[in-house]
Every structure is written in C-alpha cells, then in structure tokens.
C-alpha cells in the first residue's frame, strides 16, 4: 500500500488499520494521504483521524497541534467538540510535575477553560473541571514551594522581603487553595524572623507588623494544626515588645 499509486485503496487500507487500532501502521499511510486529499470532501474525516492517531500514540505535542488545526479548518464539523476536548486534554498531558517550568500547565488551563466556556452542556464538562482543579493545585503547590524556598534561604541571604512578598502574592492569587493556611503562617514566620534579625531601631515596628500577621492567621485558622506554632511566635513577640517598652521607660 505504501508503494501503491491508488489513493482510494490506500485510504481504505488506512481506515481498516485505524479501526483495528493499528495506529502506527495507519499513520504511515496517513502521512501520504494528507497532502493528496487536501481540499477534498474526505479531508475532514482524514484530518480528524490524523490528529487522533497522534493522540492514541501519546504524541501529545502533535495531537494538540493537529486538533488545533482541525478546529480552525473545520469549525462546523460534527467532530469539533471532541477535537476541542482532545486538544485541551493533549496539553493537559504535557503539563510537567510542579517543580518544573509551568508554561505548558498555563496553556492547558487556557485550553480546558476555553472548552468549558464554549461547551457548557457537554457530558465531558465534569471531567474537564476535574482536570482544571488538578492543574490549578499544581500551580498552587509550585507557588507555595517557591515562597517556602525564599524563607528557607532568607537568613543566609540576609533578606526576608522576597519570602514575605511571595506569601502575600500567594494569598492574593489563590484564595481557595488548601495551601493558604501555610501561606498565612509562612508570612507570619518570615516577618517575625525579619524583626528579630533587624537592627535595633527597626525591631519594634517589625514585631508589630508580625503581630498583625498573627492576627490575620488567627482570623482564618484559629483551629488549625499550626495554631500552637503561631501562638509560640506570638508569645515571643509579646515578650520582646514588653522588654523593649521596659527598657525605653528606664532610659
């Protein structure tokens, strides 16, 4: 078939292989058929199968690209919703583990959210929402780990500002995250460490700022497993402030 000049027979052979799940063999024929059928009535079905073959072979870079092309080329196709979903799912499959660069994760979120918005009544909507939640949690974990790393290295680098800023950004960007409690506590801890490592003239103001962060933590997470640690920090803040006031009064 690969050497044959009969495109009709070649198409039939490709169809048979595709239907049998022999995607690698079908792909070899498709690569010859795609340019031959461009602009013909059979091209729509062929291009969908071409994209789906890459999907079945788990070549998600090419399946995402080819399904995108299908959506653009055949916007009125009966297969357009499936193509849109498999395009988004392809990019989801490319999303790396949280510790790596998340460019593909952001693209997958954009594709999945676009699918949900365009097909609100789809029977794939629940699955798409599940995938969106999974990807968002990955981004949240990435952001909280970055903030924690800033805190871990702050003392040796002599700067707590990046950690405090990262926790502030996390709280603003991820209001419903399961890691939000950790961000509130991390911010308190970072400000407290900044205060006790500051020059004497700045310690008092920074302890008062840390006290505000304790109050914020307590407002939302008074029953959390981190409450005892937060209380311990607060006890030391109050002790230091009291000592500072006594010293000032003596002087």
Protein described:
By secondary structure, this protein is mostly helical. It has a domain at 1-94: Serine Threonine Protein Phosphatase 5, Tetratricopeptide repeat (Alpha Horseshoe). It contains eleven helices and no strands. It has helices at residues 7-19, 23-37, 43-56, 60-73, 80-94, 103-118, 125-157, 161-173, 180-196, 200-221, 227-250. Helix 6 packs antiparallel against helix 7 (125-157), helix 7 runs parallel beside helix 9 and helix 8 (161-173) runs antiparallel to helix 9. The longest helix is centred in the middle third of the chain and has 33 residues, at 125-157. It is rod-shaped. The mean pLDDT is 93.
Gist of the model:
The protein is mostly helical and 251 residues long.
Overall mean pLDDT stands at 93
Order of helices and strands: HHHHHHHHHHH
| Share in helix | over 70%
Number of helices: 11
Structural class, judged by helices and strands?
mainly alpha
Principal-axis shape equals rod-shaped
The CATH superfamily of one domain is identified as Tetratricopeptide repeat domain
CATH architecture descriptor text of one domain? Alpha Horseshoe
Q: Under the CATH scheme, which class of one domain? A: Mainly Alpha
Unreliable residue stretches: none
Rg result: 28 Å
Spatial separation of the terminal alpha carbons: 98 Å
Percent strand: under 5%
| Major sheet details | none
Q: Could you give the count of β-strands?
A: 0
CATH topology of one domain: Serine Threonine Protein Phosphatase 5, Tetratricopeptide repeat
